């Protein structure tokens, strides 16, 4: 009798747990969906009533207008070509920025001599916005495509440098001393203790760098580009295609979210204990 009661209690507990998890899953889907629908309805109402309170919505396209613009654009080769060029530039610039950023960040955190040499350049160049680099990039690089990649690289590299530097500084001294007491030299400590410990910070820096890289990319494409989703958005403004402007903006947001989400996904796989 006691055994059967214990089994029933366990079964009821598991059932309640599954129901709780299921309710959480439904809530995590329903609430964001209702939030988005509410936002679209408010947007539609503001554009229909031509609201002009602080912000002027008289010239803003409605969600239905944007949807029709998307249907017209998505079947064109130009739209997908612009997405291809933006993704290509982001991938190349972000890869270079990640390698350089991690290298410099580790150097700043691990070597006091290199920190004294490199840190002043980082602190001077870091606050300069990407858009301010556009004229110099055009002068320094032979093609506009290379200048845009350079600007995007600058957007990505500094968050990676700073977060890597911070991660290396956070390595407990006890871990380093323990490794040295077991016979590890300075290089072994770097690759087997310091860098693995700093990986959570490095991945956060890469996610932040990805967002900054998209910002820099769009600034470069709008000013000096001929292809790319930033150029698509700016050209839509010049051609008074207001629906396409929002299509471009939403495309940028979606692409940026996907690429940043991919970095966080890799982070969860590499360092699950950091979650």
Describe the structure.
By secondary structure, the chain is mainly alpha-helical. The protein folds into two domains: 2-56; 63-274, MetI-like (MetI-like fold), CATH 1.10.3720.10. The chain contains ten helices and two strands, in the order αββααααααααα. The protein has helices at 2-48, 63-73, 77-110, 112-125, 134-140, 144-169, 173-181, 186-224, 229-238, 242-270; strands spanning 52-53, 55-56. Strand 1 and strand 2 (55-56) form a beta hairpin. The radius of gyration is 25 Å and the shape is globular. Mean pLDDT is 85; it is low at 3-11. This is ABC transporter permease. It comes from Acidithiobacillus ferrianus.
Short description:
82% of the residues lie in helices and 1% in strands. By secondary structure, the chain is mainly alpha-helical.
